[in-house]
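Q:
Just now I want nothing more than another pair of eyes on a protein record. Here is the record:
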Amino acid sequence: GHSAEIIALSFNTSGDRIITGSFDHTVAVWDVGTGREQNLLIKKPANNSATAKYVLCKAAMQCCLCVQLWNAVTGTHIATLAGHSKEVLDVCFDYAGQRIATASADGSARVYNAGTKQCIAKLEGHEDEIAKVS
């Protein structure tokens, strides 16, 4: 489990896992049925999001300019999603788990293809930071 306060929580899309992020710089994957921890990822959490198989969390590197994609079942790092010039403030999957959206202090949002991990849209024009995506 975590050794510090939990600051983020998200169900996966199938509802059988909960992903938690903590001030102790960990992201944990929990089995809803048993209440047992399935995986503990050592990264800097902030907002996190999950599908049935994948976990997203802000990266500890590069002043949180990118997002890390992890396999929730194996704990394997899959990809780093980069492109923002300032801190990533929020991240989420779409309902189908096909796209990943990020919001940033640079005033932009980005949309990534979850399969290819490529940025497919840059949404710019806000005069201030974008704090949330959903």
About this structure: The chain has a mean pLDDT of 80. DSSP finds no helices and twelve strands in the chain.
